[in-house]
Amino acid sequence: MLARVNSFARALLSSLARRALAPGALFGLLLSACSSTHQVSAQSGLDVHTFTHDSINTHLLVAKGAMVMVDPGYEKNAPALEQDLRDAGLDPALVKTIVLTHGHADHAGAARHFQSRFQARVVAGQGDEGMLSTGKNEPLCPTGFLGRWRHAEDEGATYTPFHADIAVTEPLDLASISGVPGRIVPLPGHTRGSLVVLAGDAAFVGDLFRGSLVGSGAETHLFMCDVEGNKRDIARLLGELGPGAKRFFVGHFGPVAREDVADFFEVPPRE
Ligand SMILES: [Zn+2]
Ligand SMILES: [Zn+2]
After folding, report:
1. pLDDT at position 21, please?
2. Which ligand is nearest to the CA of 252?
3. Does domain 36-264 correspond to CATH entry 3.60.15.10?
4. Helix, strand, or coil (residue 249)
5. What span, in angstroms and rounded, lies between the C-alpha atoms of 223 and 228?
6. How far away, in angstroms, is 105 Cα from ligand 2 center?
7. What are the E-state strand segments in 81-223?
8. What are the Cα distances from residue 144, in Å, to 207, 213, 225, 253?
9. Does residue 11 have a pLDDT over 50?
10. Which residues line ion ligand 2, judged by CB < 5 Å?
11. 171 preceded by a cis bond (ω within 30 of 0)
């Protein structure tokens, strides 16, 4: 397969060549860029619209006339996201279910906007209720240079507190609460309340891992306190939890194909 070099990577490489800036500084510039993008991926009866603001992906699952939003993003970007939906011909008032893969500010902050304005029900892991109710991230553990460089800013990000309408402690049928066929599965690790959404051949994994800046591979997320435990969780996701998952929609960059996830995290094929 030909390596895909995305626009972020092109910007990164050309800026490196021109200005010899440190990679961390450029990564920060990329993360703080305000541009928004919209991509659509359709397969097996499930359309996935991905809207990206400040390098945070918001995924909108559309199936059987119902919609589920996964990770609305930073609070400050909520109005822009609402406008993105309208521009894409999607009525934000019809998004009745929002699933937060976890309670970090870059994923959860904008949920309150849709909850209060459109009465969307917010679904989050019980273990992250402490972050939602205070609007503060719990301590982050950097996994490398980029995480260390971004640590203070990312850990210090905040949002207006709110409460989830549904606090998840065990697997939950997505169809019964939203009309979109699928499952919500707790997979603690990145945070105590981290969730994964499985729908059709797609998995929405938040920060369980991230997409690579260059190409279409998977990489360890910038912040993870138990890296070995993270590998075991990913093997479990590819195995017992999501054996049919082929497309992995991540919180940052991506999406990533199953074989690329298995390659990077050295998950052996299933027997
Ligand atoms: Zn996170
Ligand atoms: Zn994130």
Report:
1. 43
2. 2
3. yes
4. strand
5. 13
6. 8
7. 97-99, 121-125, 166-168, 172-173, 183-186, 195-199, 202-206, 210-211, 218-219
8. 15, 15, 11, 17
9. no
10. 106, 207, 251
11. no
Residue in the structure block whose two tokens are 């995480």: 147
| 33-81 pLDDT per residue, tens | 446 899 999 887 899 999 999 999 999 999 988 999 999 999 999 999 9
Ranges of each domain in the chain: 36-264
79, two tokens: 């109005």
Q: What tokens does 58 get?
A: 């918001």
d(CA 101, CA 104): 9
What's the token pair of residue 10?
């092109």
Tokens for 71? 């990770």
**Gap from CA of 104 to ligand 2 centroid (Å):** 7
Q: Which residues surround ligand 1, an ion (CB under 5 A)?
A: 104, 207
Residue 181 C-alpha to ligand 2 middle, in angstroms?
25
The answer to whether 60 and 261 have CB atoms below 8 angstroms apart is no
What one-character-per-residue DSSP string does 35-72 give?
-EEEEEEEETTEEEEEEEETTEEEEEEEETTEEEEE--
Q: How far is the CA of 271 from the centre of ligand 2 (A)?
A: 33
